[in-house]
Amino acid sequence: QVQLVESGGGLVQAGGSLRLSCVASGRTFSNYHMKWFRQAPGKEREFVAGISWSGGVTYYSDSVKNRFTISRDNAKNMVYLQMNSLKPEDTAVYLCSVGSSWGQGTQVTVSS
Fold first, then answer.
1. Residue 90 to residues 32, 37, 67: CA-CA distances in angstroms?
2. Which of 12, 42, 88, 100 could form a disulfide with 16, with the two C-beta atoms 3.0–4.6 Å apart?
3. Average pLDDT in the 10-35 region?
4. Residues 34-87: pLDDT tens digits?
């Protein structure tokens, strides 16, 4: 079982940036894809971005492509999500995931 803890959320104006972090513990996760999801109030959880174990392959939802960047540091058991040009519709709880494990999430609120 992997424990995941997200941080870095907050309130930001539209056009601003935030960097989310997720630290994993409990077992090695270096052989797994890591992913970020988000869930807005009243909406289903949606995929945001994913990264291969080496970091060589990244993939994004169309809604965040060219604005968000996912990265990872396996030595630190960390995965990051750099979010630029934020929009009010990016407001959600952001969660990291590996395998069947999920973190508690961190709130991101973008004001217009």
1. 26, 11, 11
2. 12
3. 91
4. 999 999 999 999 999 999 989 899 999 999 999 999 999 988 999 999 999 999
For residue 43, the model assigns a pLDDT of: 96
> Which of 16, 8, 2 lies closest to 106, judged by CA?
8
Which is it for strands 101-102 and 3-7: parallel, antiparallel or unpaired? Answer: unpaired
Local structure of 88: helix, strand or coil: helix
Residue tagged 């894809």 (tokens): 33
Please check the confidence at residue 29 and state whether its pLDDT lies above 80. Answer: no
User: CA-CA distance, 80 to 49, in Å (whole number)?
Assistant: 10
Range 16-19, long-range pairs (CB < 8 A, 24+ positions): 16/86, 16/110, 17/82, 17/83, 17/84, 17/85, 17/86, 18/83, 18/86, 18/108, 19/80, 19/81, 19/82, 19/83
